[in-house]
Amino acid sequence: MASSSLPSISLPVNVFELNNILSLVLTLTITSILLANGAMAMAIPTTLDGPFKPVTIPLDESFRGNAIDLPDTDPRVQRTVEGFEPEQISVSLSSAHDSVWISWITGEFQIGNNLKPLDPKSVVSVVRYGTRRSQLNRKATGRSLVYSQLYPFLGLQNYTSGIIHHVRLTGLKPDTLYHYQCGDPSIPAMSGTYCFRTMPDSSSTSYPSRIAIVGDVGLTYNTTSTVSHMISNRPDLILLVGDVTYANLYLTNGTGSDCYACSFANSPIHETYQPRWDYWGRYMQPVLSKVPIMVVEGNHEYEEQAENRTFVAYTSRFAFPSKESGSLSKFYYSFNAGDQYKWLEEDLANVEREVTPWLVATWHAPWYSTYKAHYREAECMRVAMEDLLYKYGVDVVFNGHVHAYERSNRVYNYTLDPCGPVHITVGDGGNREKMAVPHADEPGNCPEPSTTPDKILGGGKFCGFNFTSGPASGKFCWDRQPDYSAFRESSFGHGILEVKNETHALWTWHRNQDFYEAAGDQIYIVRQPDLCPVQPETYRLNKPKPQKAKRR
Ligand SMILES: *[C@@H]1O[C@H](CO)[C@@H](O)[C@H](O)[C@H]1NC(C)=O
Ligand SMILES: *[C@@H]1O[C@H](CO)[C@@H](O)[C@H](O)[C@H]1NC(C)=O
Ligand SMILES: *[C@@H]1O[C@H](CO)[C@@H](O)[C@H](O)[C@H]1NC(C)=O
Ligand SMILES: *[C@@H]1O[C@H](CO)[C@@H](O)[C@H](O)[C@H]1NC(C)=O
Ligand SMILES: *[C@@H]1O[C@H](CO)[C@@H](O)[C@H](O)[C@H]1NC(C)=O
Ligand SMILES: *[C@@H]1O[C@H](CO)[C@@H](O)[C@H](O)[C@H]1NC(C)=O
Ligand SMILES: *[C@@H]1O[C@H](CO)[C@@H](O)[C@H](O)[C@H]1NC(C)=O
Ligand SMILES: [Fe+2]
């Protein structure tokens, strides 16, 4: 979990290992419902057809409205429960397929002055669950907490949350539907009955079939469009690659802005309006009470407050498989930068690639985005970590942060490389900040190199350099869309990753302005274990020569 004492050097990396599939039946059934079969599948390009000539889809001015936040009067963000009944119910994954977290909130938040935080012990945390709706015969208990967002400045309001509950269910069967109720049976205040499906067995049988991936979501009318498109694609798991609620675009008095930095220059600290988190939790409950979510932190989760505390809402509200799994987690983990390299190396070295062919890594700030916004902002992280991801054959990297869509060719150290990962930016969830449109390679758009490192995500260090070879040699930016960028488009949307077998994964990006099933970008990501060995020792000895970039 992010250390709240040293947030500036906290760099979460999450590695997902998708296991071998023996039974394709379920996957194929689902696929055929979603029209990605037959003739259409024939036309889908694969990474083996690459590297692709860079493509930029021109901005469609016609759909460029402002992204406007749902107001606090919207029924979907209002509290609809009474007393200590559960709200903001969500499911998230634990370290292994046989366990999940159920999280919810009871009691009302308070905002203003002289607040009396609720006593977290006053409401217990119980989940009753079972495989039959009529027979919730198992019971788990968990922990509860309250957090506060405090501002010791005249005129600013403090916030204290409702009681946040996290209960871990264990011993679950793989790929099984569970029904549950959560709450405090002694009050009594139990929720209605919800259900979720566990992930498939991670030992060898199958992959999670449909993983929705999106970042920088916020809570605008465009977010609601993204979410309804995502629901229509029936994900088994949602991966949120950072920047969740954008509560930090608001002052504590509830006044918001599309650009905090240019609006509230007189605030003594970067304020937040914490009720936006509650709004987000309420809006998302219909989805997240059913489909597990995994979250990566973004810069908007930083949220500094009194005593230099940061990331408090984020770490309090979401359950993470940190304690139970620590760095040993095979599914999700994050850690501080000092230990990051070592832990990642140990974890990657422990992956048995015969059983677990697919490695997907996610973090917030992209390395291979070509937009002007956040251009080469995480360069220090790239310099420190890229060789590790390459050496251990990470297949795909997902990032957010840049509010647009982009997919790279296979790339390593800015060089086209058939064994490098495909980097995909999906920071296009629809938040109220501006969509990213200008590219760093357009005239006048290349940022001054020293201004590029991100203070929060990059620790303020500068690791940038000018390219030493290729068309951009001697320069910090290309003067046309870089070779490593295969496809870029400024639209809101989300993506779905479907792992088909040990060599093929289908990636589909869906734009909000399209019909639900339409694909804005689609490609098979194909692994080549023979060309790109993933056993590190073998790999060092037989490092394949990168192929010459070929053009279509
Ligand atoms: C955002 O939503 C508004 C309607 O609420 C729409 O007019 C606009 O086109 C959307 N913007 C994008 C980029 O999809
Ligand atoms: C908010 O909390 C801080 C820290 O405890 C305190 O100094 C400040 O006076 C409080 N503000 C209000 C408005 O209650
Ligand atoms: C909130 O504070 C800002 C800055 O002091 C002020 O301009 C705005 O009018 C306030 N809004 C409300 C609803 O009080
Ligand atoms: C907060 O950070 C500031 C500046 O880095 C430092 O001077 C101060 O001592 C810190 N306060 C606490 C309570 O850690
Ligand atoms: C990456 O490229 C840079 C400059 O092109 C070079 O100095 C560096 O050694 C390369 N790093 C690796 C790990 O190959
Ligand atoms: C790097 O490239 C930028 C332009 O892209 C240029 O302004 C700068 O002088 C270059 N720096 C060095 C050290 O060559
Ligand atoms: C893997 O899946 C792809 C796409 O569905 C298919 O074309 C390919 O033949 C499959 N490979 C194996 C080894 O099953
Ligand atoms: Fe961000």
TrEMBL record:
Residues 475-514 form the Purple acid phosphatase C-terminal domain. GO terms for molecular function: acid phosphatase activity; metal ion binding. Residues 86-198 form the Purple acid phosphatase N-terminal domain. Keywords: Glycoprotein, Hydrolase, Iron, Membrane, Signal, Transmembrane, Transmembrane helix, Zinc. It catalyses: a phosphate monoester + H2O = an alcohol + phosphate. It is an enzyme of class 3 (hydrolase). Its EC number is 3.1.3.2. Its cofactor is Zn(2+); Fe cation. The chain crosses the membrane at residues 21-44. Belongs to the metallophosphoesterase superfamily. Purple acid phosphatase family. This is Purple acid phosphatase. It comes from Citrus sinensis (Sweet orange). The lineage of its organism: Eukaryota, Viridiplantae, Streptophyta, Embryophyta, Tracheophyta.
